[in-house]
Write a structure and sequence with these properties.
Elements lengths: L6 E2 L4 E2 L4 H4 L42 E5 L4 H12 L6 E5 L29 H7 L11 E4 L4 E4 L2 H11 L1 H4 L11 H6 L2 H5 L1 H6 L4 H21 L13 H20 L11 H11 L2 H4 L4 H11 L27
Parallel strand pairs: 3-4
Antiparallel strand pairs: 1-2, 3-5, 5-6
Helix pairs in contact: 2-4, 2-10, 10-11, 10-13
Length: about 325
């Protein structure tokens, strides 16, 4: 339960970030004394599914569902990109949390690019978790797909949320994009997650030299392969945009600005790859990617939130990247 000291003013938003009082989210003092060498992603316990026919108990309906996201979080951005690509902005509503997160977890505050929770008036996202499961004490992540009718979380399992938008909301999507075609699903599901999306975290949160070296070596081996693949095709799996491109984009967008230095993934930058860098700029030219990418939120979240990696919480001014530079990839 959120106390009055955690709220501020009449707005009901959370009180200001305070690392001195609340510490870091998931901070090491609360963790086991011996940390595992390799990064292990927490479980996502709420895994309800949306179905067009309602057989899951959560029917696809316009206006029923709400997304809680952070522009800083790559998994959350994936849902926002897909929502916009499919034209579901009027079907599934959306709220943005403050990118800076102390020990209380994600919070709602008024600020540039984020705001209060207009759906439930929550000050902290943990209230959504507690409303769904009283005394919940697990990981509190974004994205969260909330059922406004049932007053509970449907899912915080990010892969399922985008897949359900792509496959169950066709009535409203109008055939804009076929992001998850049946014939490509096996490749979409294996192409980038383990080595790239999660690979940067395995590098950044490794606690031994060996674990770091193994993760970063695997990461760049796959990036090299992807760069070669993109020399002859506009998108990862061919001429059409798919979910695979959405998944890769969220890592590429954060790579040079954050992962290269913060997570020590510094063998090469994305701008050092001819094809990956052109591909990334090609995606950025699309409104669904560009308008859901907030580099200020991304940098402030990573550099201020991970106190064990960056104890000074200083956010770098750079890098200076020209995302609007010509790329000539439409000819592929």
């Amino acid at each position: 339960m959120t106390t009055t000291t955690e709220r501020t003013g009449r707005s009901g938003g959370a009180s200001p970030v305070d690392f001195e009082v609340y510490g870091d989210y998931g901070g090491r003092p609360k963790a086991a004394a011996k940390q595992p060498a390799e990064f292990s992603r927490p479980a996502y316990p709420f895994q309800g599914r949306i179905t067009a026919d309602g057989s899951s108990g959560y029917p696809a309906e316009s206006g029923r569902y709400h997304l809680y996201v952070s522009w800083a979080c790559p998994w959350a951005q994936r849902t926002a990109i897909v929502r916009k690509l499919l034209g579901l902005e009027d079907v599934i509503s959306l709220s943005i949390v403050d990118p800076v997160r102390d020990g209380r977890g994600w919070a709602f505050r008024e600020g540039e690019g984020h705001g209060l929770d207009a759906i439930n008036g929550f000050a902290l996202l943990r209230e959504a978790y507690e409303a769904t499961e009283p005394r919940y004490d697990g990981h509190m992540s974004v994205p969260v797909l909330w059922d406004k009718q049932a007053g509970r979380i449907v899912s915080n399992n990010f892969p399922d949320i985008t897949i359900d938008m792509e496959t169950q909301f066709g009535r409203w999507a109008g055939g804009r994009h076929q992001l998850y075609p049946a014939e490509l699903r096996p490749e979409i599901n294996k192409v980038v997650y383990a080595s790239v999306n999660n690979g940067v975290y395995r590098s950044g949160f490794a606690t031994t030299q060996r674990a770091y070296h193994e993760a970063v070596t695997e990461l760049f081996a796959v990036l090299d392969q992807l760069d070669e693949r993109l020399a002859s095709r506009r998108f990862l799996l061919g001429p059409a945009l798919t979910e695979a491109d959405v998944r890769l984009w969220v890592t590429l967008a954060r790579f040079d600005a954050v992962y290269y230095s913060h997570f020590k993934t510094n063998l090469r930058r994305i701008i050092d790859y001819e094809n990956l860098w052109g591909y990334a700029r090609d995606l950025y030219a699309l409104a669904a990617f560009r308008e859901t990418t907030n580099f200020d939120h991304i940098k402030r979240h990573y550099y201020t939130t991970h106190g064990s990696i960056n104890p000074t919480r200083i956010v770098p001014d750079g890098p200076l990247l020209d995302w609007s530079a010509p790329h000539d990839r439409a000819a592929l």
